[in-house]
């Protein structure tokens, strides 16, 4: 399904989604259903997290394969290096390419539970720049042996971006230099950590452009459904939850304020030059599709509308 233009002559709004592997059989059934709705909306890609919050790495590959085989959406594989020997990482990249998945988000990842940044297994891990190069090396090896899935393209590598800084960040300038190093190593675009104010993204991108960054930066947005969810994601992103949004979610008892907040943010970002919006789905399709409908990208949910009723031949 091609995205519908907002108004005549305007370029269609582009969008993508993030999902994570299900942690139970029941959640997997719900996810299969959500993913069908998400894919039918016509995203540029659907990304799948890797090892985040203790999920298994095999589960990520299974979900990527499901997307590849049962939807029209382009799957994008997150991959983290932390506590993984280089050879094992190369194997994971090989397996992913062999499954016909060529697009990656190259990440360092967080220290596993019970360890920290000083743990030798963590300090010995490849950083995001080294992972970008390793992915390219394995892609080149695949090109030489010619065992690529003919349906997959050459593939692109994306990287994480932190408009409000990363806990490891020494300074805004060091973050921007590090991002420029990721671009120089071969990254084609960036995806941001969650943020709540348009200025966080616009200010960061403008400084990065002045410093010489040229790759597109996709803003990562999440329409939160409840006050509790807002507090949780804000703490994971290391930012204070906006108190007006928190109050609105608590008072309304519905997900509507989260949708309205994301729509407002998306409008400001797109008007300020953002190339598209990347929506964190939390494995639910309802809120993100509501955002896209409000933005005028989608007519009613493509799956729930279903096939047209048969024509009544007797008339
Ligand atoms: P890096 O880019 O290697 O470094 C992060 C920051 O550290 C830099 O921005 C910079 O501030 C500083 N830094 C590091 N090295 C240098 C250097 N040499 N010079 C200067 N500064 C440096 N985690 C998961 O486990 N699984 C996932 O699926 C996942 N998906 C994510 C998706 C997105 C869009 C984002 C934004 C994050 C995701 N994360 C995920 C979290 C991510 O793995 C962690 O935030 C991790 O701590 C950093 O990974 P990174 O690739 O950004 O690291």
Automatic annotation (TrEMBL):
Keyword terms of this UniProt record: FAD, Flavoprotein, Oxidoreductase
Cofactor(s) required for function per UniProt: FAD
Biochemical pathway: One-carbon metabolism; tetrahydrofolate interconversion
Cross-referenced Pfam families: MTHFR (PF02219)
InterPro entries on file: FAD-linked_oxidoreductase-like (IPR029041), Mehydrof_redctse-like (IPR003171)
Disordered: region residues: 141-164
Keyword Transcription regulation attributed: no
Cellular component, GO annotation: cytosol
GO MF annotation: an example: FAD binding
Catalytic activity: (6S)-5-methyl-5,6,7,8-tetrahydrofolate + NAD(+) = (6R)-5,10-methylene-5,6,7,8-tetrahydrofolate + NADH + H(+)
A Gene Ontology biological process term: methionine biosynthetic process
Family that this chain belongs to: Belongs to the methylenetetrahydrofolate reductase family.
Protein name: Methylenetetrahydrofolate reductase
Organism: Leucobacter weissii
